[in-house]
């Protein structure tokens, strides 16, 4: 099992999770993060750090977001590693409670 970044991260991209990751498994895209499943050690430290609850165990990903399991694996191969926190986008707080953000994902 691995942890997965889900739709809630899109356009929020808070990086609190990155600071606590002991193996640097996070990857940074234009407007969200992804977790490299080959690097994740299932420590669960990142999950409670996410202010928008976008990170969850693979087994807990709801049916409507199952595509994010494969999407994290795909994007992790394309995006660079992020190893320290950065400022969130200026409009992140405006997006944090928005549902249905999949169409806004930038690869």
In short:
The chain has 107 residues and is α+β, with helices and mostly antiparallel strands. The chain has helices spanning 16-20, 67-78, 92-95; strands at residues 3-5, 26-28, 33-35, 55-57. The chain has a two-stranded antiparallel sheet.
Keywords, please?
two-stranded antiparallel sheet, alpha+beta, 107 residues, 20% helix
Textual characterization of the structure:
This protein has a two-stranded antiparallel ribbon. Strands 2-3 form a two-stranded antiparallel ribbon. The protein has a single domain (3-84), classed as Alpha-Beta Plaits (2-Layer Sandwich). It has helices at residues 16-20, 67-78, 92-95, and strands at residues 3-5, 26-28, 33-35, 55-57. It is an alpha+beta fold. The longest helix is centred in the C-terminal third of the chain and has 12 residues, at 67-78.
Which helices and strands, and how do they pair?
Elements: E1 3-5, H1 16-20, E2 26-28, E3 33-35, E4 55-57, H2 67-78, H3 92-95
Antiparallel strand pairs: 1-4, 2-3
The averaged pLDDT comes out at 97
Shape: globular
Secondary structure class reads: alpha+beta
Strand sequence of the main sheet, in spatial order?
1-4
CATH fold node name: Alpha-Beta Plaits
How many strands appear in the DSSP assignment? 4
| Strand coverage percent | 5-15%
The main pleated sheet reads as:
2 strands, antiparallel
Architecture (CATH level 2) name:
2-Layer Sandwich
Cα(first) to Cα(last) distance is 24 Å
User: What is the helix/strand order?
Assistant: EHEEEHH
How many separate domains? 1
Number of helices: 3
**CATH class term:** Alpha Beta
Q: Give the uncertain stretches in residue-range form.
A: none
